[in-house]
Amino acid sequence: MRRPLRATLTALAALLATALAPTTATAGTEPKAPADFVALRAVDPTIRQEMRYTTAHNFVGERIDGYREPLCILTRPAAQALHRAQARLLRKGYTLKVYDCYRPQRAVDHFVRWAEDLDDQAMKAEFYPQVDKTRLFTDGYIAEKSGHSRGSTLDLTLVRLPALPTRPYVPGEPLVSCRAPQRDRFPDNSVDMGTGFDCFDTLSHTLDPRVRGAQRANRLLLKSTLEDLGFVNLAEEWWHYTFKPEPYPDTYFDFPVATASLTRGD
């Protein structure tokens, strides 16, 4: 009786392994970017990159899902247009610095889960000091879809050359309002734009009349340079630009932010 029982158990084990094999293989396969997505550094290595969502220094307070590497990925047309903008700005003594580029859908989903958790307000003092968290969806600060996931949208700023070094954020350190004067905000080597990056506040509106002098001039320099090369600004965020026409105007991708996601490995 032992031999038939052993044979039966062996056959069942083999059958189970065969049934599970396709599921395991599928689960381990990540989506890849289309061939016309590139790493920005392959198109222009002079553009600074400070990829905030690979760190805890963002409005959520932790690394965001899908950001495997501090890497700016864009569609090739957007990256090439940004390269042309950089060439113009270098002649004026500035460099571009990107905070975020392509954003996977899983990262957007992470933002949504965070926004729905009204008890998690660890980063409020810096990123949304005057906005009640219950209004993040209503006021448009958080949405279930983002243009970043289409690959031609990015968040960026200007840095005066020579660029000064910046220190890393230390989780748990005291937070300062993104509306505060630049000298008081978390140190950033960018020019003064009137607010910090990702400041959920009407003061971040690109043409807010309260922003004057050098701050307004800095916003307009970034805006005029980029718009002249095909980028469109989101009026509510001085840092947010989309290259037009978008190669993928209706597609929201979910491949991870990682070199391995790029078909060409750029």
Question: In short, what is this structure?
Answer:
By secondary structure, this protein is α+β, with helices and mostly antiparallel strands.
Share of residues in helices:
25-40%
Largest sheet: 5 strands, mixed
Strand composition percent: 5-15%
* Protein structure class: alpha+beta
What low-confidence regions span 5 or more consecutive residues with pLDDT below 50? 1-27
The strand line-up of the biggest sheet is 2-4-5-7-6
Give the tally of β-strands. 7
Measured between the Cα atoms of the first and last residue, the distance is 61 Å
How many helices does DSSP assign? 6
Radius of gyration: 22 Å
- How does the overall form come out from the CA principal axes? globular
What is the residue-mean pLDDT, rounded to a whole number?
Answer: 91
Q: Topology as H/E string? A: HEHEEHEHHEHEE
Task: Outline the structure in words.
- The chain has 266 residues and is of the alpha+beta class.
- 29% of the residues lie in helices and 11% in strands.
- The strands form two sheets. The protein has a five-stranded mixed β-sheet with strand order 2-4-5-7-6, with helices on one face. A two-stranded antiparallel ribbon has the order 1-3.
- The protein starts with a helix and ends in a 23-residue tail after the last strand.
- 34% of the residues are buried.
- The model is unreliable at 1-27 (pLDDT under 50).
